[in-house]
Amino acid sequence: MTRNEFIRRLKAGLKGIPEADLADIVADYDAHFDAALAEGRSEAEVAEALGNPGRLARELRLEAGIRNWQSDRTPSSAWAAVLAFMGLATIDILILLPIVLPVLGVMFGLFVAVVAIFIAGGFVMIAGPFSGFPGGAFVAVFAGLGLMAAAVGAGALLTLVGIWVVNALMWFGRLHYRVIEPAIHPADPARA
């Protein structure tokens, strides 16, 4: 594989990341080619030593996703990090999917239930005093407020659990990368 083909495939795998990050990555791999060519190695040898550009792009996407998640803990950065992890761990997905999907499904169901309880609490608080709520108007108002407070507390706990799940996936992604990287690039001087 030539330098241009390697860089083209790497860029294709990194499509969608910020332009500045892409330029830095391409410059870094251009430097690898320049240094190796100065030592008398061919472009094909350098490309082989660097590895599969598609795989490198997935690893770099995971690292970028983890950095983005660590600096900006938003649902979109969490989703991007999880997708980058899934791109890297394509083989492990067969093992992780039966674990991750039910966890995400249960969490989504619990979030829906929390929203429903919050809405029900608001309904009890507003309509309860006028509908002959058992115990009277004050009981209806306080029961509604209690339901709404419980929903907010449960939502906060679910958010913390969601953050923990994303952090666990990112930890596994980094562990996965550290474990398989030596197998992909055993004692590779171009990676040093």
Q: Could you characterize the architecture of this molecule?
A:
The chain folds into 2 domains: 1-71; 89-192. The chain has helices spanning 3-13, 19-38, 43-50, 53-71, 75-88, 93-127, 137-184. Helix 1 (3-13) runs parallel beside helix 4 (53-71), helix 5 runs parallel beside helix 7 (137-184) and helix 6 (93-127) runs antiparallel to helix 7. It is rod-shaped. It has 192 residues and is mainly α. The chain is built from 7 helices and no strands. Helix content is 81%, strand content 0%.
Assess the beta-strand content as a share of residues. Answer: under 5%
Average pLDDT rating: 80
Helix vs. strand class: mainly alpha
Q: What's the count of strands?
A: 0
Order of helices and strands: HHHHHHH
- What gyration radius follows from the Cα positions, in whole Å? 25 Å
> N-to-C terminal Cα separation, in Å?
21 Å
Largest sheet: none
Shape: rod-shaped
Number of domain units = 2
**What is the count of helical runs?**
7
What fraction, in percent, of the residue positions are helical? Answer: over 70%
Q: Which segments are poorly predicted (pLDDT under 50) over 5 or more consecutive residues?
A: 182-186, 188-192
Any descriptors?
mainly alpha, 2 domains, disordered C terminus, 192 residues, single chain
What topology does this entry show?
Blueprint: H1 3-13, H2 19-38, H3 43-50, H4 53-71, H5 75-88, H6 93-127, H7 137-184
Helix pairs in contact: 1-2, 1-4, 4-5, 4-7, 5-7, 6-7
Brief characterization of the structure:
The protein has 192 residues and is an all-alpha fold.
